């Protein structure tokens, strides 16, 4: 038997593609490429802005690490992050409840008993593990018991309250971390 060698033959279309790639882009192609870039940016704006925010946060963290700031300045600087965390905490409960309701409604009646039993066992096991972990860490760390009591302000000192602090507190309370608690909380 003889060996057969495969030889690639250049097609005329390949030469045209190569020639087109080496030529400068025309105005129509440039406009089309710019339009595609804008579409990409519009579709991925949230991801791009999130990554930019992370980069800015890391940069600020490194830049402000060695700056001596007062507690008030730190509170002002951490305010946007605190709002974001409160909003995320506020969204967790409705998302989990709606996810559970949607999941339960899609389960067949035959499988519901098996899944319910597995869920109950899983819940009990994880609760026991969490309880033992909490007890172990509480005995190991002994929170609340400190060898030295350092306080930056004595109880006799009074801190002045600025109007900006009251305004930021008002905005902070507009986003409760727990919706159920916010519904039943009594403010006087």
From TrEMBL:
Q: What is its membrane topology?
A: Multi-pass membrane protein
Q: Which domain of life is it from?
A: Eukaryota
Write one Gene Ontology MF term: neutral L-amino acid transmembrane transporter activity
User: Sorted alphabetically, which InterPro entries does this protein's record hold?
Assistant: DAACS (IPR050746), Na-dicarboxylate_symporter (IPR001991), Na-dicarboxylate_symporter_CS (IPR018107), Na:dicarbo_symporter_sf (IPR036458)
Q: Name one Pfam family in it.
A: SDF
For this UniProt record, the keywords arranged alphabetically read as follows: Glycoprotein, Membrane, Symport, Transmembrane, Transmembrane helix, Transport
Q: Which GO terms describe its cellular component?
A: plasma membrane
Where is this protein primarily located?
membrane
Where in or outside the cell? Membrane
Signal peptide positions on this chain: none
Any transmembrane segments, and where? 45-64, 84-105, 120-141
- PANTHER family membership: AMINO ACID TRANSPORTER, SODIUM/DICARBOXYLATE SYMPORTER-RELATED
Family assignment from sequence similarity: Belongs to the dicarboxylate/amino acid:cation symporter (DAACS) (TC 2.A.23) family.
**What is the recorded name of this protein?**
Amino acid transporter
Tell me which species this is from. Answer: Xiphophorus maculatus
């Amino acid at each position: 038997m003889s060996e057969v060698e495969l030889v690639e033959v250049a097609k005329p279309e390949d030469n045209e593609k190569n020639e087109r790639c080496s030529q400068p882009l025309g105005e129509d192609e440039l406009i089309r490429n710019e339009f595609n870039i804008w579409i990409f940016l519009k579709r991925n704006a949230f991801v791009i802005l999130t990554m930019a925010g992370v980069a800015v946060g890391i940069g600020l963290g490194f830049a402000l690490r060695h700056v001596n700031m007062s507690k008030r300045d730190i509170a002002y600087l951490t305010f946007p992050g605190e709002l974001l965390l409160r909003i995320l905490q506020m969204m967790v409960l409705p998302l989990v409840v709606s996810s559970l309701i949607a999941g339960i409604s899609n389960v067949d009646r035959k499988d519901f008993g098996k899944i319910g039993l597995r869920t109950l066992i899983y819940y009990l096991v994880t609760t026991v593990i969490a309880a033992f972990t909490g007890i172990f860490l509480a005995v190991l760390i002994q929170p609340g018991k400190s060898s030295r009591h350092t306080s930056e302000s004595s109880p006799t000192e009074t801190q002045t309250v600025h109007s900006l602090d009251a305004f930021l507190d008002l905005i902070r309370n507009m986003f409760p971390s727990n919706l159920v608690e916010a519904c039943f909380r009594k403010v006087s």
